[in-house]
Amino acid sequence: MKGWFQRFMAGRYGFDQFGGFLCISSLILIVIGAWVSPVLYWLGLVAIVYSYFRILSRNTRKRYSENLKYLSYQNRVTTWFGKQQVRFKQRKDYHYYRCPQCGQQLRVPRGRGKISITCPKCGHQFIKKS
């Protein structure tokens, strides 16, 4: 039985991070859709069929590029949440402002009163309360 499965899966793409995300999210959609909305249920079924399609696919280049695209999106999201976590930890020591001219995010220490802030990117000066 084990040899049959290995021969069957030879040349197929298999399981990757995007496939795992699809499987977990589709199961969540199916469970939520069973109680809330049949649209979510059917969306979950479509997602699980697509995840099995990816696992059994022989077009490994396309599946690999899909996984790389997913990983780039995942990296953006985790980086954003990491930055928000750092900002939350530093909220007692620093204020965060955006430069009104170029939009650069600036970190200013708290408790200094009204200060003139100079943007290091564009050189624009503006006054804010720290």
Q: How do you describe this structure in short?
A:
By secondary structure, this protein is of the alpha+beta class. It has two domains: 14-89, no CATH class; 92-130, no CATH class. It has four helices and four strands, in the order ααααββββ.
Description:
The protein is α+β, with helices and mostly antiparallel strands. The protein folds into 2 domains: 14-89, no CATH class; 92-130, no CATH class. It is built from 4 helices and 4 strands. The protein has helices at residues 2-9, 17-35, 38-56, 60-89, and strands at residues 94-98, 105-109, 114-118, 125-129. Strands 1-2 form a two-stranded antiparallel ribbon. A hairpin with a 6-residue loop joins strand 1 and strand 2. It is elongated. The chain starts with a helix and ends with a strand. The model has no long low-confidence stretch (mean pLDDT 90).
The helix tally amounts to: 4
Helix percentage:
55-70%
Give average pLDDT, whole number.
90
Q: Secondary-structure element order, as H and E?
A: HHHHEEEE
Number of domains: 2
The secondary-structure class comes to alpha+beta
**Largest beta sheet: strand ordering:** 1-2
Q: What is the C-alpha radius of gyration, as a whole number of Å?
A: 24 Å
Strand content: 15-25%
Spatial separation of the terminal alpha carbons: 69 Å
Global outline: elongated
* Beta-strand segment tally: 4
Low-pLDDT segments, ≥5 res: none
Largest sheet: 2 strands, antiparallel
